[in-house]
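Lab channel / #folding
Pinned by the channel admin:
"Please post every new chain as: sequence first, then the structure tokens as a reply. Keep commentary short and put observations after the output so the thread stays searchable."

First post following the new format, from NK:
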Amino acid sequence: MNLGFRDARELAKVLLDRGAQADCGDLHLLRRYERARREDIMSMQLTTDTLQQLFNNNNPLAAQCAQPWAVPYQPVCTAEKNAGAPRTQLT
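Reply from TO:
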């Protein structure tokens, strides 16, 4: 959400600083906005990409690191399979 606010703020700034430029869709004006936002957007893309790769189900390191915090119970899948077995409750 903060990224969107910064996008809107920068676009407003570029539009206010355009001077005599009548066309708000001018290529040079839009390139100025793009250059102003590039670093922030690239940083966010890198962060989300890294998090996705780190916590991907195919990442054995993430599975090893998360194992100590795993919930210590097995959920009930079917009533027939677990009939009569005590259910573990979370506190």
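NK: The chain has three helices and no strands.
TO: also worth noting, The CA atoms of residues 14 and 32 lie 7 Å apart.
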